[in-house]
Amino acid sequence: MRPSIPALTVGLVSLFACGDSPAGVPDASVEPSDGGAAVRFVEGECRLDDPSLPPPASRRCGTLHVPITRRAAVSAAGSLGLHVEVVEPARTGPATVFLTGGPGFSLAHYVPLGVLGEVVRASDGPVLLLEQRGNLLSIPDPSCVEADLASCVATLRANGVPPEALNSMESASDVADLLTTLDAAPAVVWGHSYGTVLAQRVAHQHPDVVRALVLEGVSNPTQFATGDGLEARLAILTTFGEWHAERCARDEACRAAHPEPLQPASDVIELVSRFMADESLVLSLGGASSLDLPSAVALFETQLAYHDGMLLAVELFAALVARERDGDGGAALASLRTRLGGDAAADARFAAMLAPDPRAPIALWPKACFDYRLAEDTECTSFDAALYPRELTDEVASATIATPTLFLHGALDTQTLLSDAQAIASRFSNRSDAIFERCVGHFVLRDASECAAGAARALVSGEPWSPAEVAECEARACEALPLLSGL
């Protein structure tokens, strides 16, 4: 069974607010990289209420106006507006532009994760945070209820925006135009998850604006992140269980709480074997799991540190199964809620986990249909494939990239499998690897922030870390992770 697309992305929670913008900085403009209407950057308000970032008054924020399309074959006039926030620390190194995942994840969805601040700390120069076309902070607001995708597409067309143009090829040109407009090229392009696919395309289409690539949670451009690979994901859970058991055995409080080793992988395997065949149950849990494997591991991994999320996910899934199957599970859910903290923010986060925002960024669909060629999905029939021929959108999948590149990947990543990264490694002729084997999941910047920053800086300096340096840093990061001895 193929999972529905909403099951491929974690519940979308729009957690952003407005702030004051800095004054006295002139607007900037440049001719677009591929023709079309002129690109302009217009100063405006800061919209990311992120405590991990410097206060809004010290950021440069605004809107990058870009052509709807650069292709003469696509009829569209006017421009799209992409939200931009620039953090300019007192460092003089190269700029870094950060590209979010999804496809369709907004910068706003990264705010509760705290990773935007980690990007700033990992960079030696200005950091440019770009809201990609089609995401929730872009103009026009493209969010829509997934079940009404046809109406959403029709509305965009009526407003002169062909939804086909919300694809990675155009997004890569947006990145190039941003770096040129703000005089930030060549820059380090740091992509996370789907953002690694976009980063690869930027390096392929516009190599002159890229100094280096940092690919975190490397995604294969030809492999959409679905629930395929169940056995590999269960093996990841087993690896995590073994690591946690070894840590617990060396900790007195954990040994007392768990005289028998925790076996989260075994618990998930048992639950999957009991309920995977029940299609209606799997679909009902899809929004809370983000994978066809209904373990909720990926969902918790985006809200908590990987090790916390892995342990809690097993109990959450069991409670959700009880609720869906028997109408019970309320007490177990309440217990889990308590462990997430006692404030209003935790209440909102937990509610969002169980009932994700039903809006689906429209950009998810053209990127899935054009970049990953999910032609069998009925939703893809809403788009005109002839507007962006396959030879254009597929070329990056086979291109050789000579740009200095860092593969930053956790072996315990259940969303973008390490095997997918390894399948494309040979295409990068100047690549170094920072692969974390023991305790790191999809968000290396959060699970091992010191290591991610160190490896990225080493790449930019021209002296990438050796495997021994990666292993030494990971050992320190893993030992620093707290054990959940109260579970």
Radius of gyration: 22 Å
CATH class term of the largest domain = Alpha Beta
Structural class: alpha/beta
Predict the CATH topology of the largest domain: Rossmann fold
The backbone outline, from C-alpha atoms, is globular
Mean of residue pLDDT values: 74
Strand adjacency order, main sheet: 1-2-3-4-6-5-8-9-11-12
Helix content: 25-40%
Count of DSSP E strands? 12
Termini gap: 34 Å
Q: Which CATH architecture of the largest domain?
A: 3-Layer(aba) Sandwich
Oligomer state equals: single chain
Query: Main sheet?
Result: 10 strands, mixed
Q: What is the domain tally? A: 2
**Which runs of at least 5 residues are low in confidence (pLDDT < 50)?**
1-35, 275-307
Q: What proportion strand?
A: 5-15%
Outline:
By secondary structure, the protein is of the alpha/beta class. It has helices spanning 107-110, 115-122, 149-158, 168-181, 194-205, 230-249, 252-257, 264-275, 279-285, 297-303, 306-326, 330-339, 344-354, 364-371, 390-393, 418-424, 444-447, 449-461, 467-480; strands at residues 28-30, 39-43, 59-67, 79-87, 96-99, 127-130, 143-145, 187-192, 210-216, 359-361, 405-410, 431-436.
Question: What report would you give on this structure?
Answer:
39% of the residues lie in helices and 13% in strands. With 487 residues, the chain is an alpha/beta fold. It folds into 2 domains: 7-224 and 395-480, Alpha/Beta hydrolase fold, catalytic domain (Rossmann fold); 229-354, no CATH class. β8 (187-192), α5 (194-205) and β9 form a beta-alpha-beta unit. α8 runs parallel beside α11 and α18 packs antiparallel against α19 (467-480). The longest helix is centred in the middle third of the chain and has 21 residues, at 306-326. Residues 1-35 and 275-307 have low confidence and may be disordered.
